Amino acid sequence: MQDDSPTNGVPSHPAGDAGPAGRTPAATAGPRRRRAAATEAPAAGGWQPDRAELEEVVRSLEVMYRPSASDGELQAAEWIAERLRQIGCTVAIDEETAHGGYWWPIGLMSAAAVAGGALALRGRRLLGAAVGALAVAGIADDIDSGAQLFRHSVLPHHPTWNVLAEAGDVDAEQTVVVVAHHDAAHGGLVFNPAPQRALARRYPERVERANKGAPLWYPVIGGPALIAIGSLLKLKALTRLGMFLSAGTVANMIDIGRRPAVPGANDNLSAVAVLVALARSLRQRPIKGLRVLLVSMGSEETLQEGVLAFARRHFHELPTSSTRFIVIDTVGSPRLVMVEAEGVLKIRPYDPELSDLVAASAAALEVPLVRGQVARASTDAVVPNKAGYRTALMVSFDKDKVLSNYHQPTDVADNLDFNTVADCARVTDAVIRKLAGGTAA
User: Fold this and answer.
1) Count of beta carbons in the 10 Å neighbourhood of residue 123
2) CA-to-CA distance for 305 and 125, rounded, in angstroms?
3) What is the mean predicted confidence (pLDDT) over 146-152?
4) Sign of the alpha-carbon dihedral angle for 107, 108, 113, 116
5) Are the C-beta atoms of residues 254 and 125 closer than 8 Å to each other?
6) Do 265 and 407 reside in the same domain of the chain?
7) What whole-number distance in Å separates Cα of residue 81 and Cα of residue 92?
8) Using CA atoms, how far apart are residues 280 and 440, in angstroms rounded to an integer?
9) What is the dihedral of CA 417, 421, 423, 426, to 10 degrees?
10) Are residues 251 and 363 in the same domain?
11) pLDDT of 266-291, one tens digit each?
């Protein structure tokens, strides 16, 4: 871990250092009016984050246009770094590379699969099957936190930036890495919550009992798979079905790619606000026995390009035996949620001991926490979990089990439930202190 420029690791700048020359973080915007739903609720005893600062962080960053691997993402990274440095953390910005979008790699591979199906229908079955099979392998590699070979070998790349702040007992053997991300997603018709809300209104009890999300990526990889199988077995109907699914994927990727990035207050400035609150808590009430890394990733919204780069740069410095990850993503909906397992293709469970510790901490603080949820999706948590780290993931949803304003233009601070953001900060702070053994510096 080296200097404070967007290159490598955690630096040794003193608190309050202005950072690298020519890099001026965006001016801090003062807190504005608070949404009525975010009125502070009575809470159990213990530390309370500064609600005004939580809101200030979100409002200051949501006005920055922050698509993955963009100048706006860098502006946000510098703002976050400066705020954490002002609090007293040792901070660095890692500059990495990312393609900056998933719509091009997924769209191109799906289009190739359609072309392979067309070849098969014209009698070139083996070639069509081979193209379909390659598309299956390429898409699986891209969406399941693999090497992402297609985008790395074929598509252009741009800089992306991860912010790393060191707090707690920096000389401790045990480490906890708390992860957020500061880039913002593109919108798209596929993210329209209307179907799920209609289902919740029609079958409220079933939706409440359900604990698994819809497998939205299955048709994406299923289309090329059906093309490959149909081509080999001379099943034209199956090949045509695969072509239909893959053509639908191409249409969705075009739609997502042409839309602008959303403000991203819930996803995921809510978690960035938690990082800032934790930094302030650890500065005001120091601990011993646990090193804390507060990390805000770039390019999460392009299928974890930022955290994959973090893994390549830093995992060798973080032994799995002494490092835990707590990943926070989209915690501004009304109900705080513990995700017990996650995966796009293979669902991998999160560490039950760490998850139980989070749940026990929430219970001690009288913070309601929904448990038992399984996500057929991918957050930054899948990468350390897949690498063998003890990992926990907290998200949030509303009464319909919808992530509030997810990838919508309405994902702004005025629609955020800051009570949930504050509760997430309190629970995470309690977990950190229990991992440290309750030892104050």
Assistant:
1) 8
2) 35
3) 94
4) positive
5) no
6) yes
7) 7
8) 15
9) -160
10) no
11) 999 999 999 999 999 999 999 999 99
CA atoms within 13 A of residue 81's CA, in its CB half-sphere: 33
Which of 229, 257, 285 finishes a domain?
Answer: 257
Q: Do 176 and 293 touch, CB atoms closer than 8 A? A: yes
For tokens 């090329």, what's the residue?
224
- What is the structure's pLDDT at 340? 97
Please check whether residue 115 lies inside any domain of the structure.
yes
Given the DSSP bridges, would you call strands 175-181 and 291-297 parallel, antiparallel or unpaired?
parallel
**What is d(CA 247, CA 23) in angstroms, rounded to the nearest whole number?**
44
Phi, psi dihedrals of residue 198, rounded to the nearest 5°: -65, -40
The residue with tokens 């035996």 is 321
Q: What count of other Cβ atoms lies within 10 Å of the Cβ of residue 420?
A: 28
> Of the residues 257, 285, 312, which one is the last residue of a structural domain?
257
Q: Are 139 and 250 in contact (CB under 8 A)?
A: no
Question: From CA 57, how far away is CA 79, in angstroms rounded?
Answer: 9
CB 68, CB 101: distance < 8 Å? yes
The 3-state secondary structure of the chain, one letter per residue: CCCCCECCCCCCCCCCCCCCCCCCCCCCCCCCCCCHHHCCCCCCCCCCCCHHHHHHHHHHHHCCCCECCCHHHHHHHHHHHHHHHHHCCEEEEEEEEECCCCHHHHHHHHHHHHHHHHHHHCCCHHHHHHHHHHHHHHHHHHHCCCCCHHHHHHCCCEEEEEEEEEEECCCCCCEEEEEEECCECECCHHHCCHHHHHHHHHCHHHHHHCCECCCCCHHHHHHHHHHHHHHHHCCHHHHHHHHHHHHHHHHHHHHHHHCCECCCHHHHHHHHHHHHHHHHHHHHCCECCCEEEEEEECCCCCCCHHHHHHHHHHHHHCCCCCEEEEEECCCCCCEEEEEEEECCCCCEECCHHHHHHHHHHHHHCCCCCEEEEEECCCCCCHHHHHCCCEEEEEEEECCCCCCCCCCCCCCCHHHCCHHHHHHHHHHHHHHHHHHCCCCEC
Domain presence at residue 138: yes
Q: Lowest mean pLDDT of 20-29, 95-104, 208-217, name the range.
A: 20-29
Task: Round to whole Å and give the CA distance between 416 and 413.
Answer: 5
Residue 410: its pLDDT value, please?
97
| Domain boundaries, position 280 | 47-99+158-187+261-435
Length of the chain: 441
